[in-house]
Design goal:
111 residues, rod-shaped, 5 helices, mainly alpha
């Protein structure tokens, strides 16, 4: 907070404001760290699903077209497609930018 904004505040209030700013900074770093760790775990899950999906695709492709057209083949194809669908749904957006925007907008009045 600039000196101009501190006008009229008591020393205790300025000190409290500075403590709050430090606390917000610490909490923001914790949130960013938690998001980073979560995103890494999601990445590992996506890699695993991709790996299994590739194995299933290979197994299916190695079978004859006759097998693929029979009940076993169709059931396996449904199973394989369920894994591929899961791969498409486990994606996470990068929300760091949203957090920074929120923090900068809503905590700026304290600075």
């Amino acid at each position: 907070m600039t000196r101009e904004r501190e006008k009229g505040l008591k020393k205790e209030e300025i000190k409290k404001r500075e403590e709050l700013v430090r606390e917000l900074d610490i909490r923001l770093e914790y949130v960013k760290y938690t998001i980073d760790m979560y995103n890494k775990s999601v990445g590992k899950a996506n890699e695993f699903i991709q790996e299994i999906s590739s194995l299933l695709e290979g197994y299916y492709d190695d079978r004859t077209s006759q097998w693929q057209e029979e009940d076993n083949g169709r059931n396996y194809c449904d199973f394989k497609e369920a894994w591929q669908k899961e791969l498409q749904t486990i994606e996470i957006d990068d929300i760091d930018a949203d957090i920074n925007e929120f923090y900068n907008r809503d905590a700026e009045f304290l600075r």
